[in-house]
Amino acid sequence: MSAEWQAIWLTLKLATVTTAILLIVATPLAWWLARSRHWLCQPLAAVVAMPLVLPPTVLGFYLLILMAPSGPVGQLTQSLGLGTLPFTFEGLVVASVIYSLPFAVQPLQAAFSGLSERMLEAASTLRASPLDRFFSVVLPLARPGLLTATVLTFAHTIGEFGVVLMIGGNIPGETKVLSVAIYDHVETLEYARAHWLAGGMVAFAFLVLLSLYLINGRLGGHGLKP
Amino acid sequence: MSPRLQAQLHHQRPDFTLEVDLDLPGQGVTVLFGPSGCGKTTLLRCLAGLESARGHITVAGETWLDDRVQRPVHQRPLAYVFQEASLFPHLSVTGNLHYGYRRTPRRLRQIHPPQVEAWLGLETLRERFPHQLSGGQRQRVAIARALLTSPQLLLMDEPLSALDQASKQDILPYLERLHRELAIPVLYVTHSPEEMARLADHLVVMADGRVRAQGSLTELLPRLDLPVTSAQEVGVVIDATLAAEDADWHLSRADFNGGALWLPTPTRPLGSPLRLRVLARDVSLARQPHHDQSIQNLLPATVVSVDSDHHPAMALVRLALADTPLLARLTRRAADQLNLTPGQQLWAQVKSVAIVD
Residues in domain ABC transmembrane type-1 (chain A) (predicted)? Predict the structure, then answer.
């Protein structure tokens, strides 16, 4: 497998794993942020949004410190026999999950906040238990938000660079993702190869966002169709 | 006879206290009546478990709430019809109808989709989605959806108030039909005297989070101390039977305990039950039965009491036709000239009778 395809494959794998983990983590978190009136809501929402404003290098730097052999997370993973996370694929997954968290949480939170309490009350008078209500009413009604969260998380993870560079480095097949490969090509003045990858990403990003807008436009414009 | 519905509830909010003690028959429609903000909806929500309350609730012999038990909403076999239909927008009419039906244990299912679709006229709407329905159709689907959980108690919170007049008239006959078909208690919140007159068997009058009175409609409506009707609309409701027809004049006679009233022949067979409404302002009194005048309905009546009216010039006379109460609104001067005293026998002239059900 050529170095390019290896980078593409690794990037897609990272984005898929990250998106899967984030949907599981972000859904209850977004639900809580949307529905609870606890005083911790606002501080937590601010923490979740931090990756939006921080330079990725800052995030990567602190993650590196935390996950290094002497850092608290590093000591924990070592004591569990997992070794250390920096410069591994698993380390990249952890970093991506944190880096893309707001892109998963915020669309879901908006979708959950817009949900009318009355729908849930109606479902509960129709003998639906709380978990049942979540799967039969909340998730179907939050479908546009769920779709947005999935696509944005996936696309954003594919595009990440700074965090990867800080904690993943440049190990082919392990941590060398597309953005790093492009950077390498440019550094070594291999512009043609950089063009292939960079142009491919531009097209990819456009197609992803276009399909998202088309689908959400259809969902929102004419009500929900089966 | 089905077990009674009993509820003692205490619910506290910073600016409002609900304190009620209800004891209602195990079937029939009970209308909760009272001004806005008096706690009708809160009472319904407490019964459903949508608001927390202390006290106890027993429905159909089962305890839903007491010191030890607090069943969550989804474990109370009830149906709730909200002011707005609140249909699930992502499900078709059939999907909405089956939502509660599928979640009702098979052995408890007593009401099935074909039956309810026929009752509420939904056969042609099955494939549609909520946004493709009119307001009245949506509310019919919501009622059907609620009934398909085979509830032990049906709670309806002003189900018609969000509808225009035409949709209301469209849906009322369906409600009257349910009323005849269902053997469960129905609690119906409204502040429309028309809905109350058409649907109620029993009445609970509320004010400031408390029950002012509860009893049968025919018993409570003539009571003048209750804010049940506006001054113009004071009157009684009489349950009668269509007994005879005078085909030449297109008139029919409705018999009731204590007399009979003639009215324009309605489109329903002889022998069917009728609910009549007689407003106090349409009743006048005479010492002698005058046949040389236009009013056809002359009934022998006994004066029970003479009460004051909202207007100082007027008096409300409470009458008894055997067991049936009747009210007459007269000027005080007329009452004085007739020298009305309790126990006095005279003739009530009824100028107009409305069929409400």
Answer: 8-214
Nearest by Cα to A24 from A90, A108, A85: A108
Q: Are residues B175 and B45 in the same domain?
A: yes
Per-residue confidence (pLDDT) for residue B11, from 0 to 100: 93
Residue-number span of the structural domain to which B253 is assigned: 235-355
Of B48, B86, B104, the CB nearest to A127: B104
- Domain assignment present for residue B327? The answer is yes
Nearest to B23 by CA among B215, B184, B186, B196: B215
Please give the helix or strand (H or E) that residue B260 lies within, else none. Answer: strand B259-264
Model confidence pTM above 0.80: no
Indicate whether B315 and B201 sit together in one domain. Answer: no
Q: Domain tally for chain B? A: 2
> What span, in angstroms and rounded, lies between the C-alpha atoms of A182 and B62?
70
Least Cα separation, residue A144 to chain B (angstroms): 12
In this predicted model, what pLDDT tens digit does every residue of A174-224 receive, in sequence order?
A: 888 888 889 989 999 999 999 999 999 899 889 988 988 888 777 654 344
Contact A224 B89 (CB under 8 A): yes
- Edge-first strand order for the sheet with B62-65 is B62-65, B54-59, B5-13, B16-24, B210-216, B202-207, B28-33, B185-190, B153-157, B78-81
Q: Cβ A121–B73 below 8 Å, yes or no?
A: yes
Chain A neighbors of B80, CB-CB under 8 A? 121-122, 125
CATH number of the structural domain spanning residue B298: 2.40.50.100
Same domain, yes or no: B188 and B250: no
Q: What is the CATH number of the domain that holds B114?
A: 3.40.50.300
Share of chain B above pLDDT 70, in %: 96
> DSSP string of B30-47?
EEEE--TTSSHHHHHHHH
- Does residue B146 sit within a domain? yes
Instruction: Read off the DSSP letter of residue B340.
Output: -
The residue in chain B having the minimum alpha-carbon distance to the alpha carbon of residue A117 is: B86
Contact A129, A47 (CB under 8 A): no
B243: left (phi over 0), alpha (psi -120 to 50) or beta: alpha
Decide if A170 touches B, using CB distance below 8 A. Answer: no
| A1-53 confidence digits (pLDDT tens) | 588 888 899 999 999 999 999 999 999 999 999 988 889 989 999 999 999 99
Q: Pick from A6, A16, A19, A207: which is nearest to A107 by CA?
A: A19
The answer to whether ipTM exceeds 0.90 is no
Does residue B211 sit in the same domain as residue B240? no
| Cβ-Cβ contacts under 8 Å, B48 against chain A | 125
Per-residue pLDDT, averaged over B59-68, amounts to 91
Domain A3-177, CATH homologous superfamily name and number: MetI-like (1.10.3720.10)
Q: Whole-angstrom Cα distance, residue B106 to residue B117?
A: 19
- H helix runs in B86-181, sequence order: 93-102, 113-119, 135-147, 165-181
Give the residues across from B260 on adjacent strands.
Answer: B255
Task: Provide mean pLDDT across the span A45-72.
Answer: 91
pLDDT (tens digit, 9 = 90+) per residue, B199-224? 888 889 888 999 988 888 777 777 76
